[in-house]
Give the backbone structure.
Amino acid sequence: MHIFDFLQDDEFNQLREQMNAPLLETTNAFVNVAGLTQQEWVALRNGGLEIDSKLIKQGKDGTLSYKDVRVTLNIRDINANTSRELSLPKIHIGYCKTLDEMQRNARFERYIVSMEKHMNRQINVVKDNQTVNSDEHELDVCRNCLGLLSWKRYHGGMTLAAKNQIVAEFSLVEFFEKYPQTLKLEEYEQLHTEQSQPSNVYHKNWAEISLKVRERMNWQCEECDGDFRHNKRQLHVHHVNGLKYDNSSKNLRALCHDCHAKQPYHGHMLAKS
């Protein structure tokens, strides 16, 4: 049995264009988020990433960032000392005096960077230049960082009991709610793994969404101010960040065909003009 291919039918394609119904693209390709590669993204969300310390930046608010994401730092490899109980490292949320001292003493490369929202970290115990144990431990937040950021009004003059309570109740989930992980939050409200990244396809109600955007702009191009009330087919709706499933108002612009074709990665439209 022969199955008719509508995509090869000129009349069908002409009708589809009149209805402003673009073809769906089903791809699960990794979307480069905040400048991270897929390998970096996976590592940051699954145990941490070893990087050049020069790539870690201190924000105006005192927090730490790698490329365009906020991160935490912790030491992964610690030396065993049989004379006393194992001393676990701390999780750093800001560029505190401890990190400053470590960097001045050329010890900063010991840290790994992470985006994980829990306090558990993989810690390697090293003895005689060999890893003798590798296990997951729940770490405490750095107290110097708490003071730097005045987290929950943490300061040096507090009682030890009050300090201990803030440390015990500290949550990275709460921390990243106050200091969002993506510095470009207006572009990306949520980061995705390769598995959770939505397919980059138009919403099933895209025709209705597109119509509302163009009506809201009174059928006027937001780029050239052209009036398309009498030529509505030539006014499109453009996804600024290239994510077809992101129909937030800040991501949609009403653009005429010519202005739409001039947007990044839209060169294919020039051949159709």
In short: Residues 94 and 164 are 19 Å apart (CA to CA).
